[in-house]
Amino acid sequence: MAIKCPSCGGKMIFNVPNQGLKCRNCDNETQVDYYDLSNEAGVSKGVYSVTVYSCPNCGAELSASDEQTAAYCSYCGSESILTMKQGEVAKPKLIIPFKISKEKAVRAYEKSLRYRPYVPKELKEGEYIGSFRGIYIPYLSYELDVPDNAFEFMATKSYTIGGWDYYEEYEVKVEIGGTIKGISFDASSPFDDSIAREIAPFDTTDGKEFKEAYIAGFYSDMLTTPPETYGDIAEKAAIDSFYEDIGKKAGNVELVVPKEYSERKRQTGVDGYRYGVDLFPVWFLTWKKKSRVAYSVMNGQTGKLSMDIPVDKKVFFLASGIAAVALFIIFSLMPIFILPTTISWAAAVSLTVSSIAFFYEILKIYYRENHIFNIGNASVNKAEQKKEQERRKKKAKSEIKKRFLFIMVASFSVFIILAFFAIANVVGKVNLVIYAVTLLLHIILFIKIKDRVAKIEKKTAFIPMLFGIIVLVIGLVIVIINPVYDYWYYGIAILCLLAMLANTISMINYLNYLTTRPVPDFFRREGADHGK
Fold it and tell me: CA-to-CA distance for 142 and 230, rounded, in angstroms?
């Protein structure tokens, strides 16, 4: 049921700057406390009525307090007509209303783009930037009780004054007990935990008792994460907070506490938790390209921004080309001479640096695709999680064989390096050491990257690393032969640069892949009014 204006009967929405309701027709303003849609039946059941939108293609659901324009799915991007039905959802205990208006969100986004030189031009267009959508994300908020008790701790404190180091020991005696509040985790499985951490924290002391008027003109995501998902984490966070707070109040000392978590739990008396569902405000901006989307997410209370911005390869290589020409001209005018062998090993070192950076990009993709740090998502997919546990048990049996193989390969590589040392002449030793070490590093990175690539969608990620190994093997052979003509060293330097180029192109491709997701894994909310 929409909130109707008492003056003209028009639709009222929550106005962020004024923190009240405003009519879209006559601009009449009303305080939220004066206008509550909740009926007695809904209040007694702890639920409230919403319009639920369902996608016929992916089965995704979202809700709104009234009928909004929803011409396509917010999750998979399908333009099929979404089915609508009236339903009921659990009434949250607390809501943090939007404090950041859409205009402020847009300005903060535009300001952040100034420090990103290779942004695709579509992300700067006004029509796209204006499509920020406000969504309330459900969070599970936990409360834990600490029984009233007397505690005695040993504590230490270290500091430096006037060049002197001080170490002090204390006995801390305290009587304390009460309830630890404000431990919250996002409870929507599509909303990745890594994003939630980037835009955290939300200040629950600024929260309000839930009223439907606060969500007028916005969407709400559906609660999908079971409360037991974060139960143990909430207990541990509460216990850590307990010790930390005592240490601060005792003069910023460090308490000596039991190492075992079970002992800390027994000592504090924390046992069990209570939870409630709260709604926290988030601004979403989605960019879709082909079968993937990128997004920027803002904390609607504090304005903290998390951005996934792809790189425009044309702009990147144009800027890099201009910079390369400028550097070439500058170095050409300088009265210096660099030996071909120096150019050769410098190229090998540069190649290794680019390979290490590329390796870490693959690690990020591996972490994201396998939900390594997304506890909420993993908890929903119980079947997949069980299969993963079984797979890890089987893998553990072969882990010893892999480690043995790795030790053998590393030992053989060291033996080859020592052999090269024995046959190399004095002049070639510097080149020899650098090429041997960089080759060994590439082999180690290649072995590690092969294991990660097997668990991500892009199975060709190891190819640039393999190309780098081939180039360094050729370079090592040339260093051992130690040819008279300089063009051999220039040639291997060019090969290293080509391998670096392959790494760079791959890094950009994978960076763009990393900053996007499959369409069904993300929300694209359209059609709501947002109280500008």
Answer: 9
